[in-house]
Give the backbone structure.
Amino acid sequence: MKASRVTELLNAFDGKRVLVVGDVMLDEYVWGTVNRISPEAPVMVVEVNGDSDFRPGGAANVVHNLQALGAPASLIGVVGDDSHGKRLKRQLAEAGVDVDGVIVDKSRPTSRKTRIIAHNQQVVRVDHEKTQEVSPAVARRLLDRLQSQISKCDAILYSDYNKGVITSDFVSRGVAVARGKGLIVTSNPKPMNIVRFKGVSVVTLNQTEAQAIVGGSLSSEEQVRSAGLKLVEELSADAVVITRGSAGLCVCEREGKVTFIPATPIEVYDVAGAGDTVISCLTLALTGGADFVEAAILANWAAGAVVTKVGVSTVTRQEIVQMAIRS
């Protein structure tokens, strides 16, 4: 892609508002060092250095990525009636995110992932969450929030972490409303929920997720091509994007066009949250007039930049430009 086109597409992010719907989480990082093995069990003893670091995670990280790329965003999701939910909403609101759609559900805790990091390596992760589907009453409240905000956005992005917010009825009704208004609808679903996203504009999956859905190996480009086109047809989607780690991305479109985009050689430190970066950049690019391949190229560069950072992180437009120069 020419440099002028990259600049044009990135500048088109200005003023585009994306409504993110999904499973919000709080990511907690505990940083420390390891100097010995515990006498109680064959495990490392992590000596904690300072206070924990809290960052938006899950669908909240998607919003954080959109904000970092210079686009306003709104969020619809669920937190618990606890200090972690209050912290998460406060962090997002202070960053300029519209959190009016974040509902407090007293029957469940705020999803929180605690990662213990020593010497820039994750030692263990502890999850605090309840993954049962939200109640019908909560689902109706979520749909009401979506319908009240849909007229203010350019795209809807479903961020599914299989934590109970993305119920089948909630998705189908939301997609029908959005597509009826001509909006772009993107999603990064978990394999067990894939059928819920029939009719969306674009679905993004990593290769392992795509393999779990279609069955069999996806070790060759031909197998990836076949799986992607099959998913496009089954989901009635405009396109399916399969991320392939160091092999880059594959874009499969409804008309049968398949494009493989190579990754930029970089040193990978942490892939956590890379999928959030991909779907965020891809969605923004589509709202700004990019075609599917152009959007995937920008998303590929964004992912390349984010995996060079430790922990769930975001990227800026300038970092995407820097990755484009390296490619």
Observations:
- The chain has a mean pLDDT of 92.
